[in-house]
Every structure is written in structure tokens, then in C-alpha cells.
UniProtKB/TrEMBL annotation:
Gene3D superfamilies attached to this UniProt entry: 1.10.1660.10
HAMAP family tied to this protein: RacA
Similarity annotation: Belongs to the RacA family.
UniProt-annotated location(s): Cytoplasm
Protein name (database record): Chromosome-anchoring protein RacA
Predominant subcellular localization, coarse grouping: cytoplasm
Keywords annotated in UniProt: Cell cycle, Cell division, Chromosome partition, Coiled coil, Cytoplasm, DNA-binding, Sporulation
Origin species: Mesobacillus maritimus
UniProt keyword annotation of Metal-binding present: no
Gene designation: racA
PANTHER family membership: CHROMOSOME-ANCHORING PROTEIN RACA, REDOX-CYCLING DRUG-SENSING TRANSCRIPTIONAL ACTIVATOR SOXR
């Protein structure tokens, strides 16, 4: 069993199991990754330690119930064919990652291109609207100039008529 399984069995945390092993100076077996491996005898020792702690004995005072010599598993040499398989797998994964990255970049480029085209269309529409408004403004300006000129012309004519009427009325004509 591993540390987590023993912790669940005893109802404590995995760090508590590790602390018990360390403080009690237990010689535990470890796997190739350096993790504790517990057999039935080791689990019995853990149960005894838990019982002693529950009875009020300090962890520092607990002596190892069964001292064992430490055994480690020796990592075997990797065979050439296993190494080549692993290397092939890594190469395939790198190629997949690169393809995926290329696909992602291509997708982003297409999205940006679409956005740019949409912005160009909006710019063209706004430019046309501005041109129409400027043309309308020019027409309004011309109309107002014509109106001012007509108004000025009418005012001059009206003044002349008024003057003529005044003179005629004065002279009696």
C-alpha cells in the first residue's frame, strides 16, 4: 500500500503517516520514485503507533516496534528499443503540438483578417456617409447664399420702390 491508502485506513492524513515514519525512525521500503511502500507488518506498526499516541505517549518517545533494514528497488537499465520507442513517441507528440500551434495561429490570422475586412467595410460606409453629408452641407450653403442674395436684391428693390413712392407722393405724381 502507498502512504495515502494507509492514511485512509487509519483515518489520518498522509503527512501524519510520513511524520510517524520519520520520528519513529522506521526503516521503510520505498519504490523507485522514493515513495513509501507499506506491507501488512508496516501497517501493524502504524496501528501500534496510533494506539500509543491515542493513549497519550509522545511521538518522540515511541520506539520502533519492529526495526527493519531498508530495502530499495533498483532501477533497471532502459533497453535501446524502449529508448527508441520513447524517442519516437516524443517526436510524434512534438509534431502534434507544432501542428496544433500552426492550426491555432492560422485560425487567429483568419479571424483577424475577417475583423480587418469588417473594419474596412465600416470605414467605406462612413466615408460615403461623410461625403453625402458634405454634399448636403454644400447644397445648404449654396441655397443660403442664394437666399441672402435674393433677400438683398429684394431689399434694394423695396427701398427703391419706397423711395420712388415717397418722391411721387411728395411731388404729387
Amino acid at each position: 500500500m502507498n502512504t495515502n491508502a494507509v492514511a485512509k485506513l487509519l483515518g489520518v492524513s498522509p503527512s501524519t503517516i510520513q511524520r510517524w515514519v520519520k520520528h519513529a525512525n522506521l526503516k521503510m521500503n520505498r519504490n523507485e520514485l522514493g515513495h513509501y511502500v507499506f506491507n501488512d507488518a508496516d501497517i501493524d506498526v502504524m496501528k501500534k503507533i496510533q494506539e500509543q499516541i491515542n493513549n497519550g505517549v509522545l511521538l518522540q518517545d515511541i520506539a520502533a516496534a519492529a526495526k527493519k533494514t531498508r530495502q530499495a528497488t533498483v532501477r533497471k537499465e532502459m533497453r535501446q528499443e524502449d529508448f527508441e520507442k520513447l524517442l519516437t513517441k516524443i517526436t510524434e507528440l512534438e509534431a502534434k503540438i507544432e501542428r496544433k500551434a500552426d492550426e491555432h495561429v492560422s485560425y487567429q490570422l483568419l479571424q483577424h483578417r475577417r475583423e480587418i475586412e469588417e473594419l474596412h467595410e465600416k470605414i467605406d460606409t462612413l466615408t460615403q456617409q461623410i461625403e453625402r453629408l458634405e454634399e448636403k452641407d454644400r447644397k445648404n450653403e449654396m441655397d443660403s447664399i442664394d437666399m441672402v442674395a435674393a433677400s438683398t436684391e429684394e431689399t434694394g428693390l423695396f427701398k427703391r420702390l419706397k423711395k420712388k413712392n415717397f418722391i411721387s407722393s411728395f411731388l404729387g405724381i
